[in-house]
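Backbone shape codes
____________________
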Amino acid sequence: MIQLVSGDSMIEATKQFQPELFRSYLRVLARVALRSSPKLQKKIDASDIVQDALLQAVVALPQFRGETDKEFAAWLRAIVANKLADAARHFGRQKRDVALEQSIRNRLEDSATRLEIQIPANSTSPSQRLIQSEKARFLDECLAALPSDQQIAVELHHVAGQSISEIAQQMSKSKASVAGLLRRGLENLREALKDKERELR
């Protein structure tokens, strides 16, 4: 049921929480969630999922009842999880699958916990939110700039939390090869992030 809200409450909610600031953060999480399901990854674009989720978030923003950025990030992740589950059903021609939805939600939450070590989600001031958004954008850009195999290995290991053995199986590579990809990927990622930080000075 659609809840009608006053213009004042919509303006107030929009002032306090801005979904767009979370775009890069959500894109990393959606991309990693899709990596865990290679069949879906070929059919679903993480950026499209996040765009749809942000549009829904803007419309539903007056109904958000949380008070912190951490609660807002969790609310946005739930919307992304639902969009991913909807897309999975669409391409799999399945009826609603609560277990699938919960699995996607759990993966997003686990990845968010790891990601928030690098990008804390408890900022309170507008300037802190902008800094957090910039960090997420830099991380997203730097990950995307890595050679494909390095990007996949780094995202699956450090964001999705998969073991080297699991990644080796998914990528059809040896464990030694995956370990090498992780080492080089992290070196390249750290260097790229340092370059981004220097740009801000």
